[in-house]
Amino acid sequence: MTVTYHEDALIDLQEAIQYYSQVSWKLTAEFETEFQSFLTTVRTNPFHYHFTKNKRHRRANLKRFPYRILYRFNEETSTIRILAICHDKRHPSFGLNRQ
Questions:
Q1: Nearest to 56 by CA among 11, 98, 92, 9
Q2: Nearest C-alpha neighbor of 87 from the set 69, 72, 73
Q3: Which pLDDT belongs to residue 76?
Q4: Does residue 46 surpass a pLDDT of 80?
Q5: CATH number for the domain that contains residue 51
Q6: Is residue 93 part of a domain?
Q7: How many structural domains comprise the chain?
Q8: Which long-range contacts (CB under 8 A, 24 or more apart) does 34-40 make?
Q9: N or C: which end of the chain has fewer CB within 10 A?
């Protein structure tokens, strides 16, 4: 299963890691571990997470950290496209217009 990232999703991830790195290296490592756990789950079962209201994207909530991950799964190419990694305080529609 291939995972690709929208260029802005990579920026989202870098910003989250940068924020936690200013707080604690341990917190940064824990955030990265939880994100890797999400990747493992979504690679194993891309249908595990529920659809957003628009029914075009899926949304995964991290367990410990207040972040949600929006992604799309293309069954034909077996590709998972990470569209956004956003803090829960952002508007619920954040990232939904990304392709």
A1: 98
A2: 69
A3: 95
A4: yes
A5: 3.30.2310.20
A6: no
A7: 1
A8: 34/62, 34/63, 34/64, 34/65, 35/62, 35/69, 35/85, 38/62, 38/69, 39/3
A9: C
Amino acid 1: pLDDT: 84
Each residue of 3-37: pLDDT tens digit?
999 999 999 999 999 999 999 999 999 999 999 99
94 lies in some domain = no
- Model pLDDT, residue 38: 97
Note down the domain range covering 28.
2-87
> What is the predicted pLDDT for the residue at 57?
92
User: Mapping DSSP to helix (H, G, I), strand (E, B) and coil, where does residue 86 land?
Assistant: strand
Residue 59 lies in a domain: yes
Per-residue HEC secondary structure of 37-82 comes to HHHHHHHHCCCCCEECCCCCCEEEECCCCCEEEEEEEECCCCEEEE
- For tokens 């949304």, name the residue: 59
DSSP structure class, residue 91: -
Classify residue 98 by its DSSP letter.
Answer: -
Provide the 3-class DSSP secondary structure of residue 2. Answer: strand
Over residues 42-52, the mean pLDDT reads 94
